[in-house]
Amino acid sequence: MIASAAVVCGWSYFIFTGNILTLWPMFGVANQLLAVVALAVGTSVIVNEGRSRYAWVTIVPLAFVGTTTVTGGFLSITNIFWPLTRSNVPGEPFKGVLNSALTAVMMGCVLVVLAEAVPSWVRHWKEGRRATLERVALPGEVFV
Domain of 86? Predict the structure, then answer.
């Protein structure tokens, strides 16, 4: 409940002190990075269950969404948020630094998730996993 309250207070701050031009790009980056994390988790589940042949179904969208979102986040920082730091309007420099930092932190967290997940997938593909190599027979199946 404390974490939820902190997130609600944080987004409320952005809504009440900013405008849609600064809030929307950050929300878009956060939303799409959440999709990247979900696709990485989905890929990990597929690989860990020994169904690596289906991993491309989540890896292809992961690569596309991840690449475009990290690029978009970088462009949001450099073209939208960071220029606010040079503004003469009171409060704008702080908002620019805060939005830049939070967007960078979100992107960094996703990169950490991918830095953990991808080597795990590669390790499973190279070495295999005994539990996934010995497939459990479904009802009606016969192993030869």
Answer: 19-127
pLDDT at 89: 84
First to last CA, the chain: 54
Please give the distance of CA 124 from its chain centroid, rounded to a whole number.
22
Domain annotation covers residue 12: no
**Residue 25: count of CB within 10 angstroms of its CB:** 20
For residue 139, the 8-state DSSP code is T
Confidence (pTM):
0.76
Q: With CA atoms as reference, report the closest residue to 85 among 71, 70, 104, 100.
A: 100
Tokens representing 38 are: 């979900």
Cα–Cα distance for residue pair 114/6, rounded to 1 Å: 26
Residue 14 falls inside a structural domain = no
The H-or-E segment that residue 69 falls in is helix 56-76
Which CA distances in Å does 79 have to 22, 71, 82, 123, 132?
Answer: 11, 12, 7, 39, 47
